[in-house]
Here is the input.
Amino acid sequence: MGSKQKEFTRDVSYIAVSKYSGILVSIIISMVLARLLSPTDYGVVAIATVFIVFFSLFTDMGIGSAIIQRQDLTTKDLSNISGWSFWMGLVFGGIFFLAAYPIAKFYNQKVLISICQLLSLQLLFSSLNIVPNALLSKDKKFKLIAIRNITIQVGCGILAIITAYLGLGLYALLINPILGSFLLFAVNEISMRQKFRIFFPSGQPLKKIFSYSSFQFLSQLVNYFGNNVSSLIIGKTISVSALGYYQKASQTIGVPSSAINGVISPVLFPYLSDMQDDLPRMFSAYKKINKILLTISFPITALLCFCAKEIILIFYGQQWLGAVDCFAIMSFVVATQISSVSISSVFQACGHTDLQFKVGFTNTIIAILCLMFGAMVIKTIEGVAWMGTLSSTWSAAFSIYIVYKKCFQENSLPYFKYAVRPLLYFIISVAFWTCIDHLFNFNIFVSLFIKIIFWVITLYIYLKFFTEFDPIFYLKKVISKFAKK
Here is the structure.
């Protein structure tokens, strides 16, 4: 194994430990909070979150990715960029503070005023974290990132549970975004000591990265609307409590794809950026990762789909029963998201942020139209889920086709042919358990246990006989590695 591959594996392991520990902590915290707070509480905070993510795009402006990709930025350049980040955080934080009033009036939720105004603090600290976060990734200090992230998440999560138990209500959901961003800034300041040129920062460094960051920003902007328009529409056209159910199902569905994306993307982008002058080498690395992701994505999706009721009720309790069907429908989104995890890293590493924007814009238009149809014509969160799944499938297929054709000048047909077997595994597994669920009425814990056993057995058969990945071989490899240690 080459030194670069060893470094990549090591850095992925750091991020993996952080991410998976974080997911475990997040699940435990979410299980407790879901029993202390109502779907309406989650729905209200979901509305505020949609708006703060929008304003965050204008404080970031694609700067973080540009810093990682550009190799010629000096210390003085970074100091000036940090200064601009500070002012953008201050300005847009102020705009969001004032926008709280019309947002609350539009949704007829007076509590949104204080929620949005408190969250405006997050905008300031998040903007101050842009440059140091990018430099940590660029310098591949993934061990520090891992320790920092998990420590802050555990501390904020425990505090959120305590405040919810003491009766703080939906304000407990603000602990993590506000306090977390502040603590992130404090740790970054201690570890990086990034200089800020606050007064009269030069605009020259921004001009250096403009051609890259502008398209990156536009890509993030269109992706924002594609990912969040459903929450905006549901909160207005259906109900805030329905938005709570939808948001809980969506967040839970997002855990597996986040577990993969959050580990692969932060490490993959800097390494692919190092290969930007060697496209055949980059394509080889991309194909290997993509084939692995495609192989595992559909089995994960199948497990989530036929265990939807068990997962929601065991994790969150009976008051979240309204999220079960939505969760089952959206489970297919996991396969499309995981199988296309590496796409943005390729666009950015190749310097094709303009192409990323065009693809993202096309996908977002289709997503918005689908989601509007679900919310305004079907008028149920299940309808929104079906339309969201449809648009996500299109997005993944179209994006992969463009990456193969435009970035690498390769034929994408072999990829889609390979996808047939994982897709068949998903269809057969879900069809089988749909029939079983209609015939038998197991205890919820017994049902989950039986389904997991079935999934493990069928997964082994699928990997052993229908893919290139022998599960026993890789298991022995992992065991021997730990035995040596």
